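Hey, resending since the last one bounced:
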Amino acid sequence: MAGRRENPVDPAAGPAQYLAHELRALRESAGSPTYRAMALRTGFGASTLSQAAAGERLPTLPVLLAYVEACDGDREDWQERWRRVTEEEAGELRPDDTTAAPYRGLARFETQDERLFFGRDQLTDDLVHQTRRSRLTAIVGPSGSGKSSLLRAGLIPRLRRTSDSADTQASARPGTEPGAPLITAPASTRHNSPEAPPAALRVLTPGSHPLRTHGPRLTPADTDPAGGDTWLIVDQFEELYTLCRNTNERIAFIDRLLAAREPDSRLRVVIAVRADFFGRLAEHPGLAEALRDATLLAAPMSTGELRQAIVKPAQEAGLIVERELTTRLLSEVEGEPGGLPLMSHALLETWRRRRSRALTVAAYEAAGGLHGAVA
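The structure tokens again:
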């Protein structure tokens, strides 16, 4: 390293070259220590430190601070310099950018976001399977585990595709040409089939007066007897205990949901409840009995699933995520309570500061990282 001349940099050629020029000046003022000597002082490799002043791209903050310490520079001063430069390098915020963001931030996924909803394929499969087996199903998980997104961007699109598939198959059957009567199975064999297309899909949250507010929606749709079930998806079921103060109304609302278990029911119910309220469901004996074998846990994402949730939305938008950023996010999010919305928000802020087609570590750090992005 000592005898190798560094390529010249132009401080007017952009943020990366400017910072490289300043770092070289700092190193020269410290007596031009070799990168090997600097490495011994910092614990970072000589090549990593030399790359920090190469001008090809901005160094990460830890590398820059190690470089500065090895040259006896002022950490606070250089940290502030780095933040100013990374904001410029990352393209700043783009208020005039009309491109649709590939990440949802702190917001939940909606049904129209299905193409960006990655990492929960297995859980979606499990939920669909469970709802086919049980007329009343509960999905349980801690706050921030993605239950609302699972229902809207996972389950509902699957059910709608079932409906589209059934329509396509029906149109292909003999006797379904234009003007011909539609051939359907008898009501007794179709309407209780979990595979039948939904007659209706209704999504609600209980609120403070669940029965008064949603009473009419708890009744199955008035459709042809040969049609499918009405699917009732009750999100944030814990509102029955946090917002509804009337015990009798709470019990009556649950009783209406339990009607889905009647032999001739045309209703199929899915509820999502926060894990710390799961025990409250046992207060209603009928609900406890119904969910004995009909409860699914929203477990934390595996490493592979998290990687999909990081990389795939960017790919869908024609972007790339730096491998170093993916590795860092995985290490920071795994085991972090409520980490999914934090990760999504940090990625959204990184996307807003993206450099061309790349989401970089520099942009991520400029956004504040996993926790600073929210602030």
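The two ends are 41 Å apart (CA to CA).

Sorry for the duplicate.
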